């Protein structure tokens, strides 16, 4: 199923100048970036985004981190993109993430785990709306699709 998911390249990704390398992973996989912007997360946006964590003991530290430097927000589209992107990220804690995943290859931290991605269809819809308005999505037909999968795989 064709899906869209929200991906955030977090402050550690920006500060470590890994934006290009991480975006390349998604492009190389055959996923399409259909919206992208750099922004500074405000405390209010952090509370909305991480609503399920606001009452947890680590929330203050999480908010301080996510607001500490700019992030890059992307809408990424592809077949089963929500699961595929989460699989590419690996386990939340970089210390536990499998080698070959983004966190497994670049992170040794639970908080500074480089990338966020929506964990299901409902959170994808909710989170995409938090970061993008409808007119910021750029629909296009990727010319490389016929070279990357058979027509009946859609
Ligand atoms: P993310 O995928 O962005 O979703 C919530 C974030 O909270 C998670 O990545 C981690 O960065 C952070 N997080 C989750 N669990 C903990 C924890 N126990 N202590 C500190 N940070 C956590």
Number of domains: 1
Count of beta strands: 4
Overall geometric form: globular
**CATH superfamily annotation:** Nucleoside diphosphate kinase-like domain
CATH class: Alpha Beta
Kindly report how far apart the N and C termini lie: 7 Å
Low-confidence stretches: none
Q: How many H/I helical runs?
A: 8
Q: What number is the mean pLDDT?
A: 97
Q: What small molecules does the structure contain?
A: adenosine-3',5'-cyclic-monophosphate
Main sheet record = 4 strands, antiparallel
Strand order of the largest sheet: 2-3-1-4
Helix-strand pattern = EHHEHHEHHEHH
The radius of gyration over CA amounts to 15 Å
**Which second-level CATH architecture applies?**
2-Layer Sandwich
* CATH level 3 topology: Alpha-Beta Plaits
Explain this structure.
It is a single chain. The chain has 154 residues and is of the alpha+beta class. It has one domain: Alpha-Beta Plaits, CATH 3.30.70. 39% of the residues lie in helices and 18% in strands. The chain is built from eight helices and four strands; from the N terminus they run βααβααβααβαα. The protein has a four-stranded antiparallel beta sheet. The protein is globular, with a radius of gyration of 15 Å. The model has no long low-confidence stretch (mean pLDDT 97). The site of adenosine-3',5'-cyclic-monophosphate (CMP) has 8 residues, from loops.
